[in-house]
Each structure stands twice: as structure tokens, then as C-alpha cells.
Amino acid sequence: MRSSVFLFIRQAMLYFLIGGFLCSSSAFTNEIIQSESEISIVELSKFREGMGQVRDINDHAQVVGFIFSSDKNFRSFLCDQDSVREIIDPEKRNAKAYAINNAGDVTGSMFDRSGRKAYLWSADKGMVEIGSLGGESCALSVNDHGRAVGYSYVKSNQFYHGFFWDGEQMTDLGTLGGRHSTANDISNNGRVVGQAMKSDNQRRAFTWSAEQGMTELASPPNTTTSGALSVNDLDQTVGFAVNQFGSVRAYLWQDAETVDLGALGGETSMAVSINNSGLVVGYSRTSDDRQHAFLWENGRMIDLNDLLPTDSGWELTEARSINDTHRIVGLGTYNDVETSFVLDISSMLTAKH
Questions:
Q1: I need a labelling partner for 292 at 20 to 30 A (CA). Which of 123, 141, 177, 270 fits?
Q2: How many domains does the chain have?
Q3: Which of 103, 89, 167, 173 is nearest to 133 (CA)?
Q4: What are the helix and strand counts (H, E) for the chain?
Q5: Series of mean pLDDT values for 10-residue runs along the chain (353 residues)
């Protein structure tokens, strides 16, 4: 049965509750919105501080991100239902957490005296450097098998290349004939996606596997640039493409086809994350030229702000990640203060089937 999330939302009666929800830690200010579908939104108040950014959420509702602290350094945090933990190494500084897998492993970058280094953090081993291709490095994603991807400086050509780290060594993914590339995400099947430069200096979305190497993803018609940002375990890939007029649009690659995901009334959109149910989140310009977070499902895009009461105090501006339990993390404002959120739409999606 084709889902009808939009009809269900219109029928729901929403109201506010204030109270404890996820944890007693100061990381969370607990604003809960419920309806017949039990939609809820929770503020991650830890990330209010100094240009805070929430980046990823796993299926256990563990959230990672970073803030710019009063000591002029970036500091990374892992928040779950019971605690807030700083991801730190006493010898390192400016740590940024970008991704978390279902084992609780976190990837990102930090600085030491020799520059920026990619790391893998775990509760039992702490922060471990995973190496480089000869210079600085940054890890952007990690799958449930502990395999990581990102980018690293290559001394031989003085540009950055995407890498795959298998738990022991780092592999240079190369390019599409140009000078640089970036690996943005990896699925549990080992499929890597990202963006690479071609010999004509165009930047295009790619997919990579150990068996097939790097392959350019099909370019949407009349586009000059594309990039892949997220891939699920069904090899469905999302990202963006730029048309000949310079407008950025959200795209889905699946079954050798490219799908324009549309926009929220404006001209531009960006697809940032896709889960294993094929739900896509990102952000788009609206008809009144504001940036709003979106959910895309089965050919239709919805403004996440339409899930909330008009007097909620929230404006959700960017969705960063959606997990397989249908929780979304992203950025927005609450009562005109920039902050981060977790939006739980799981009960809504269950109820409509």
C-alpha cells in the first residue's frame, strides 16, 4: 500500500506537552509535541553553544555533533538517552564528530601538532588515529562493520582524495580523471559514494566498491555538477546536482535512474541523508525564500515544519540525518535561538499503513 503521510498529517490534532523525555542531562531541553501519531520533537540544547552542529544519529538514538567552545576550540559530543559524553583526547584539540554507527563508533577529525587527522572513537578504545594518504585527513562516515571513509591530502599531486579505511589500512579511491575527490558515505555493504573531479574539471557524483572501483553516477539532464552525500544498504543514493542556471536540486539515484526530488516551492534543494526505508531528508528553499528542512517519501516532499503547530516556536531549517527508526536530527531555531533537534516520526509512519 502506498503511504499517505501528507493526508495523515492534515488529520492529526497536535498539542504540546512539557516534561522529561530522553534524559536528565543538560544536553536536552525537552519540548515534546504529540498527536494521534505521537510525533515528537526534542531540543538538543547542548548544541546551542557556540555554532553548535548536530551531525548524525544511529538506530539507538545516539547523536553526535560538535560546538565551538569558549576556549576557541571545537569540542565533540555524544548524546544518548542517559548521558552526554565529550569525545576527547587530552593531546588533541579541535575535535569534530561527523558520524556514528550502530555500535557507537564515531568518526571525525581532530588536530594535533602535525595537523588535521581522521579518527575513529569507541567507548573502549577512545580516540584512535586511522592514518592518511600522506597529509591531513578527515573521516566523514563509518558503517556498522567499522569501515570508514572521508578524504585525505595526497602529497604526490597536492590535492585531496577520497579514502576507504578497512580497519587496518587506508585505500586511495582515486578520481574520475581529475585532481581531487571526497568520499562522503559508506553503506553496510561497503558501497561508497561521494564527489570526484573529471579531466574536464567537472565535479560529478560517484559510487565505489572494492570489486568495481570508482564509477561515475549518471548525470541528471542539463546539469554541470553533481555530488552524492548518502547511500543506504539498497544502494539508493542521494545528493544534489547543479543545472545550467546554477540552481542546486536534490536528487536520488536508484536502479540506474536519476530522480529530481523537487523543492518546497523555491528553486533549490539538497538531499542529505537516506535510510533503508528509502526516506530522504535534507533542506530546501520555500516559496517565500526561507530555508526549511524536508522529508521526501515515494515521490512527495513535505516541509517538516508542517508537522508542528504554528505556535510551536520552532523553525526547522536543515535535516542532517534520518535513522532506520525514523528519527531525524537537524538544525533550526527555537524561539529565535539557533539550536538542534531530534524529530521522531516513527509512530506516524506506522499508523498510516
A1: 141
A2: 1
A3: 173
A4: 2, 30
A5: 30 25 39 54 72 90 88 85 78 86 97 90 93 96 99 93 98 98 99 98 98 97 97 99 96 96 98 98 98 97 95 96 98 92 85 55
Residues 64 and 98: beta-carbon distance below 8 Å: yes
The one-letter amino acid code at 140 reads L
Taking the alpha carbons of 177, 180, 185, 189 in that order, is the dihedral positive or negative?
positive
Model-level pTM?
Answer: 0.89
What's the length of the chain? 353
CB 16, CB 309: distance < 8 Å: yes
CATH number of the domain that residue 37 is part of: 2.130.10.10
Q: Which residues span the domain enclosing 119?
A: 5-351
Instruction: Please tell me the distance from the alpha carbon of residue 330 to that of residue 316, in angstroms, as a whole number.
Output: 8
